[in-house]
Amino acid sequence: MKIRAAVLNAIGAKTPFGQTRPLSIDTLDLEGPGYGEVLVKIGAAGLCHSDLSVINGDRPRPTPMALGHEAAGVVEEVGPGVHDLIRGDHVVMVFVPSCGHCLPCSEGRPALCEPGAVANTAGTLLSGARRLSRDGAPIHHHLGCSAFAEYATVSRRSLVKIDPELPLEEAALFGCAVLTGVGAVLNTAKVTPGSTVAVVGLGGVGLASLLGASLAGAREIVAVDLADDKLALARELGASHTVNARDPEAVEQVKAKTLGGVEYAFEMAGSVKAMELAYKITRRGGTTVTAGLPPPTHTIPVPQVNLVGEERTIKGSYIGTCVPVRDLPRYVALYRQGRLPVDRLMSGTLRLEDINRGFDLLHEGKAVRQVVTF
User: Fold this and answer.
1) How does residue 147 score in pLDDT terms, banded at 50, 70 and 90?
2) What pTM, to 2 d.p., does this model score?
3) Which residue of 12, 25, 210, 355 shows the fewest CB atoms closer than 10 Å?
């Protein structure tokens, strides 16, 4: 079938994207689902920093590639071997397909699925297939989803069925921002009631972490960012204190507000400076968690003696250490109960044709989560 999709033809584009237009809106050929695959009509797809990192070259991926990984849609057709979904079911995409058989999957850690990681790096579906092409030449899949498109063929292992009453533009955010941000708090760090928490970087994932900290019963939540408007939103969403990271006394401010530092600090900006700040504001015996994705060559200097003498912990968190089929329905239920106001993360919707400008707004820090609707 013929579809319209946003295709990245080369990485390393310069800003403003509205002028350089790294994403072209092209007509592609999309094959139907093979064994264990599903054809999904995309309803909504969110613009995420992980997409931006591919565009600017911070996260190198093979090109040409159809981007988009945070999305929700409706099942159009199921392939052979798929027996638990039918046409009309509403689904959320998860950007690491889990095979269910490798060692991490068998240990209950599907976010670390080994075949899933291989497929995502290669730009294929879990099966190793590519179902997209342009003028006969194959197009790579972004994280098994390629959701900036009217339709997508994906592995069944990339989908979680959801309640059809949840609007698709809201449902899309659960596939990345919510799973990653809330999961980092509840699954990776296991924040306990009465704890002190700081979140550094208030994009979609960072603000979702803030919501997760509030849900977990943190007594103090410090929000740290460069943008005053995001700090204001953080206060509305439950932050006890806000600190602008541009302030040269930012670290001391956080320590002063939390009696020496927080028990849990979350770095969600994907930068070395943010990670260093998060580490410095973590108290003795505390835990620093990062879900940011800086360029692979970036490293952080950590005094090794502090890890021992202060019993520090540094943890990475990928997709919030989640089990998608378990966690995503739970988070949706909490949202519908009013306990996880995910809709407050939405900055607005846009057309597929306006996607390059949308990434300018994301790059400039002027949007939290924009959603392309179809």
Assistant:
1) very high
2) 0.97
3) 12
Question: Across residues 185-201, what is the average pLDDT?
Answer: 98
Tell me the C-alpha distance between 153 and 212, whole Å. 32
User: Is the preceding peptide bond at 16 cis, omega within 30 degrees of 0?
Assistant: yes
- Which amino acid is present at 321? T
Quote the CA–CA distance of 297 and 335 in Å, as a whole number: 37
Query: In this structure, what token pair is assigned to residue 186?
Result: 């509840």
Quick one: average pLDDT of 163-173?
97
Go through 92-111 and write b for each residue having 16 or more CB atoms within 10 A of its CB, e for each that does not.
Answer: bbbbbbbbeebebbeeebbb
**Inter-residue contact 49 to 203 (CB < 8 Å):** yes
| Cα three-residue angle 316-318-322, rounded to 5 degrees | 120
Domains parsed from the chain with CATH numbers: 2-175+341-373 (3.90.180.10), 178-319 (3.40.50.720)
